[in-house]
Design goal:
Layout (H helix, E strand, L loop, with lengths): L3 H22 L15 H9 L2
Length: 51
């Protein structure tokens, strides 16, 4: 457990950093009008409701 948690944190931080860099390279917040998403509603709501 002492190794798993830091590894999971590093993986999450790395993936978030990669995702952020891709978004910035492709126009950032100006990319789409606000409120427009390609994600299905069930996925967004399910992610928010997860405990």
């Amino acid at each position: 457990m002492r190794v798993f948690v830091p590894c999971a944190w590093l993986l999450t931080a790395g993936l978030g950093g990669c995702r952020a860099s891709v978004r910035i390279r492709h126009g950032g917040p100006r990319q789409r009008a606000s409120g427009v998403t390609r994600l299905p509603l069930w996925l967004v709501v399910g992610h928010v409701l997860m405990p």
